[in-house]
Design a protein that fits this description.
The complex is a heterotrimer of chains A (463), B (302) and C (318). Chain A has 463 residues and is an alpha+beta fold. Chain A is built from 19 helices and 11 strands. Chain C is mostly helical and 318 residues long. Classes of the chains: A alpha+beta (463), B mainly alpha (302), C mainly alpha (318).
């Protein structure tokens, strides 16, 4: 018995355990360099800054070109943390609010900038830009700079800005004998969409977002609400979701998506619509201006050269595009503020824009941050189809004065209060359900109205 | 020596006859039924395997496409392959993430095994009095939804200076996998026949000797299964990794989601990255599974 | 010796024997405890400290977005947990989703384990292919299903079902619960299969042969020998599987966003909305504690009353 047991134990040493031990030996020897090593501060005079950013194509380019920055600044080492937009916002909020101190530069939008400035979470960049005249802060597009300011000071520098407009297939319009006017109205766009909608050929009339999320579905929908004359709150912070303009706008949007929108609309965000349109399955698409550069890139799009661009459709207002800018800000907890500013100013400088154009191509230049970008001849040529329209749309979007009625909050396609992340998401879930046919718009907005009222009261806005 | 279909040689002694070969040792009376079963079983198994594997295969193929080809209607099976996506991934610096993941996974799994094997032994073969409570305690540590506890954990890690270190991941993964390991190993330990234990005791073995020289080899396949599962959970763990690490200790799952963008196409690139991310675990699984199903040769010992 | 002296010395021997065996018992009890203690101590330290801190936070009202708003509120958060809009439907969804996913995965895992228990050509390859879904990171797997399989226009599911006239059916909004259950079953069936296969392979071959020699058919062997043997392993699968599937978050976050409406919002996703949209840390902590207590209650009932897992040490037939 014992012999058999001894034989068995001797021969059957599990391969798995052996492998695990071998891996451990290997990994532990490597870990010293990669995992735990590298104390964050200075290694032989070098400062390491941690930049938190999203994976948008323009941001990926910063990472690629950061070698150029490190060459010019040999004492600074840049480490990137790249996350999807939602994750990034969650992580950065958590870190900054609990003073975790993990990031030296964070990527935020026009939504967070004024709020975080008010909380004292990010540094006032006014002094930094004044000390650095070469940076030319006056060159930043005024509406964008305004959206990133608080109490008159700049708190974040824009990396790229966007508004919204309509992209449409010129060839399909021609085939159907339709002409897109230079400034369409929503009724016209709806008409075109219903005419061009052809489910049998897998062609949607128009692609519109239906994905729940305060920054997904509500980005285009809020612009429709604005131009229909609606708003979220009146000047006394009474919720206005069940008022006529908001109702009409939402009903219009939902009907349009249901009648002429893409299949799978309740779960379609920017990416899904981009896929649908760039594969030729939609005749129109109303979304961010940055989509244009993606549509004209043969690596991502099958409809290169077939697209026309017109400003966002209007009803009661002169213009209706939204305003958003991915920007770089400096957490107050950072211990390497000077190095952080060097990086931030480099990434948003005229020099960087030229660098991108020369090294990666002029269509990849980050749009919507500086006026001077739109003067560069190579860029004007490469982005001829949409550059001017983008600039015009951004210039005409005003975070303090969107829509037709006055409002107690800032923001074009969002409500600039911290509670909107939750409120907007909750209401958008209902509206997305309406798009899916599970409830009526009236029911959705009724629920939304209750939630909006509750928020205004609990957060202390409504006295 | 008889070799089975998989090419593993098995010893022909009574003690080593691997179980489960029921169909092959059946007496003649049932041969005709078995001929149909012989065809049916592999066919069904292959259909299931292809069905389960197909999405993974598609993901693997998509890693070699340009973004414009990743989504087409109808889906493209024939396309011009490109290595552009893989080049992008490597240019982002895959290696540090790989090292972090490997360290966290391997060290935490070893730690789990080192702690859970004696613990499972003490709960199965000669249990302590309150074994039910102990087992229940272990599993109850998995009941807390971490989403609600992440801010407290974050603050604890911050105060302990453990933010963005592989150490904090090792600590958490070990605690995370401990209940699974204890429960699974206990089930395997329960299979060890009393006869063997008695024989070892009669031979005068101490508790430790009993464990190491007698029991462990018998439950080796169970240990392999448990280790594999712990490795998979630790390797793919995302929530703690993304919350508690930033630039130095980020692991492969964090690297992976870094390709998801809200304003661009990313599916081909993400497929390539996901394929690379699961290769190490696939390798570990392939090696471990030879142990997984060799089985325990219980009935062979009289 | 006289009879009384005999009996006295016998009693003395018996007492000494009992004392000796008691000492041995005590030593072996401590030896056994020392086996269990390291794992216990480690787990207690690493899990209970965060648990206690979470309880502490649940007694406070703290909104991350409003610095300086943190203050002690006692049990108020617990009261609001149950009155929260959507809590009840989150619970119902969680139960529905978990039960379905666990049952289907278990059945699938059982069938696959039975198939793989027999030898055939290429069995090792089939095993690896079948485990592959479990190896993919859950987030990547969920994205895979959302974009490659279930997309109404480009998805393979609709492509394959085209001959049946499915068209561009939007699975995620028309059938949200079955959609995420499918993804969960795809991910967890391999896990169940691994455990059940180990169970099947540990069957005593002699007992099986003896039964066969006695004239039992395949089905009888399965019903009377295999299933009881597997019962422990199946219960283990249900226990572990439930714990993991209850905490499913990725596929819901990625595929349906908890929708349409709240149709697929389960407790983890609901918690996420509290913690990372409302940033109400205190309420999220309270919700987490309530969930934990509820799970403890359910698990206690399940384990002590229903299941075999706690009934004595020897469960497998020898």
């Amino acid at each position: 018995m014992r012999d058999r047991v001894a034989t068995r134990s001797g021969r059957r040493l599990p391969w798995a355990l052996l492998l695990v031990l071998a891996l451990a030996a290997g990994a532990c020897s490597g870990a010293g360099g990669g995992g735990g090593g590298g104390g964050g501060g200075s290694q032989g005079g070098k400062t390491t800054i941690t930049v938190a950013t999203v994976a948008n194509p323009q941001m990926q380019d910063i990472q690629k070109l950061s070698n150029a920055f490190e060459k010019d600044n040999p004492n600074i080492n840049v480490k990137f943390v790249i996350l999807p937009e939602n994750e990034l916002r969650d992580r950065v909020t958590q870190d900054i609010a609990t003073k975790g101190g993990q990031y030296d530069v964070v990527t935020i939008g026009t939504f967070e900038a004024p709020q975080w400035a008010k909380n004292g979470w990010i540094e006032n960049l006014g002094p930094y830009t004044q000390k650095d005249p070469a940076y030319d802060a006056a060159d930043l597009i005024p509406t964008v700079a305004k959206a990133l300011s608080y109490n008159g000071s700049l708190y974040a520098v824009p990396f790229y800005g966007e508004s919204s407009f309509v992209m449409y297939r010129k060839d399909l319009f021609q085939q159907a004998g339709l002409t897109m006017p230079a400034q369409p109205t929503w009724d016209q766009v709806a008409q075109f969409a219903r005419k061009l909608n052809n489910p049998k050929k897998n062609q949607a009339g128009i692609c519109l977002r239906g994905l729940p999320g305060w920054g997904e579905l509500f980005a285009p929908l809020n612009t429709v609400v604005n131009t229909f004359g609606g708003r979220w709150y009146d000047m006394n912070w009474n919720a206005q979701l069940t008022e006529a303009p908001f109702q009409q706008a939402t009903q219009f949007y939902v009907n349009l998506v249901r009648d002429a929108g893409e299949p799978g609309a309740p779960n379609s965000g920017f990416t899904e619509c981009l896929t649908a349109y760039s594969q030729g399955h939609a005749a129109m698409w109303y979304d961010a201006t940055v989509a244009a550069s993606l549509l004209e890139d043969p690596k991502t799009s099958k409809v290169v050269g077939k697209n026309g661009y017109v400003p966002a459709p209007v009803k009661l207002t002169k213009s209706s595009g939204w305003l958003w800018a991915w920007s770089l800000a400096m957490p107050s907890t950072s211990k390497k503020k000077d190095a952080a500013w060097k990086f931030m100013s480099w990434a948003t400088s005229k020099g960087y824009i030229k660098l991108v154009g020369q090294q990666l191509g002029w269509t990849r230049v980050p749009p919507g941050s500086r006026l001077s970008t739109y003067q560069i001849p190579e860029y004007k040529q490469a982005a001829a189809a949409f550059a001017d329209l983008t600039l015009k749309a951004i210039n005409e979007a005003d975070v303090n004065n969107a829509g037709t009625q006055p409002r107690p909050y800032t923001g074009v396609q969002y409500v600039g209060i911290p509670e909107f992340q939750s409120l907007g998401t909750a209401v958008s879930q209902e509206i997305s359900a309406a798009i899916a046919g599970r409830e009526t718009v009236a029911q959705a907005l009724q629920k939304g109205q209750q939630q909006a009222q509750q928020v205004a009261k609990e957060a202390g806005y409504k006295k | 020596m008889e070799a089975d279909d998989d090419g593993d040689a098995s010893m022909s002694t009574v003690a080593e006859r691997a179980p489960g070969r029921v169909a092959d040792t059946a007496p003649g009376r049932f041969r005709s039924r078995f001929r149909m079963e012989r065809l049916l079983v592999p066919t069904l198994a292959w259909i299931a395997a292809i069905g389960f594997f197909f999405p993974v295969l598609w993901m693997f193929l998509t890693g070699f496409k340009q973004e414009a080809d990743a989504f087409t209607s109808p889906p493209k099976l024939i396309f011009a392959p490109t290595l552009a996506q893989y080049r992008e991934i490597f240019s982002r610096g895959f290696a540090p993430f790989l090292i972090n993941s490997a360290t966290a996974t391997v060290v935490s799994t070893l730690l789990v095994l080192a702690l859970a094997i004696p613990c499972a032994y003490g709960l199965a073969i000669k249990p302590v009095e309150k074994w039910r409570d102990v087992l229940f305690f272990f599993i109850s540590t998995r009941f807390l939804p971490v989403v609600g506890a992440i801010v407290p954990i974050y603050i604890i890690a911050r105060d302990a200076q453990l933010l963005d270190t592989v150490t904090v991941l090792i600590l958490l993964y070990t605690a995370m996998n401990m209940p699974i390991a204890v429960w699974m190993l206990r089930s395997f330990f329960l299979e060890v026949p009393r006869a063997i234990m008695e024989a070892a005791r009669i031979d005068g073995a101490t508790l430790r000797q009993e464990l190491v020289r007698v029991v462990l080899p018998l439950v080796a396949p169970g240990i392999a299964a448990t280790a594999l599962i712990c490795v998979i959970f630790a390797w793919n763990e995302f929530f703690f990794a993304v919350n508690l690490t930033s630039s130095r200790a980020a692991t492969v799952p964090v690297f992976l989601v870094g390709f998801i963008t809200s304003e661009g196409l990313f599916w081909a690139r993400l497929s390539a990255a996901a394929t690379m991310a699961c290769l190490p675990v696939l390798l570990a699984g392939w090696i471990a599974q030879k142990q997984l199903v060799r089985g325990l040769t219980m009935g062979a010992v009289k | 010796m006289t009879v009384t002296e005999d009996r006295a010395s016998q009693r003395g021997d018996a007492l000494r024997e009992r004392a000796a065996s008691a000492a041995v018992e005590r030593r072996s009890r401590w030896a056994r405890r020392s086996l269990v203690l390291p794992a216990m101590l480690y787990t207690i330290v690493v899990t209970q400290i965060p648990f206690l801190v979470t309880i502490w936070y649940s007694l406070q009202s703290w909104n991350l977005l409003r610095p300086g708003s943190r203050h002690f509120v006692g049990l108020a958060n617990y009261g609001s947990v149950f009155s929260q809009n959507g809590f009840r439907s989150a619970v119902v969804n969680t139960v529905e989703f978990t039960a379905s996913a666990v049952i289907f995965s278990l059945v699938g895992g059982l069938i696959l384990a039975i198939l793989l228990d027999r030898k055939f050509r290429g069995r090792a390859l089939v095993r690896t292919l079948l485990i592959s879904p479990f190896l993919i990171m859950p987030t990547a797997g969920a994205l895979l299903w959302k974009t490659t399989m279930f997309n109404p226009v480009f998805g393979i599911v609709n492509f394959v079902l085209k001959p049946f006239g499915v068209g561009t059916l939007d699975w995620a909004s028309k059938f949200p619960m079955p959609t995420i259950i499918t993804v969960a079953v795809w991910q967890w069936t391999p896990f169940m299969m691994i455990i059940l296969l180990s169970g099947l392979q540990s069957q005593s071959i002699d007992i099986l042969e003896a039964a066969r020699v006695d004239g039992a058919g395949n089905w009888q062997i399965f019903r009377h020998l295999t299933v009881p043997h597997l019962r422990t392993y199946m219960e283990l699968c249900v226990l572990l599987g439930s714990i993991f599937i209850v905490q499913t978050f990725d596929s819901i976050f990625i595929i349906t966003q908890g929708g349409p409406g709240q149709a697929t919002t389960n407790l983890p996703y609901f918690l996420y909305l509290q913690a990372f949209r409302r940033f109400e840390i205190g309420q999220a902590a309270a919700l987490a504690i309530v969930t934990t207590i509820a799970t403890i209650i359910i698990a206690t009932i399940a384990l002590r009353v229903l299941s075999n897992l706690f009934k004595g040490e020897e469960l497998a037939p020898r």
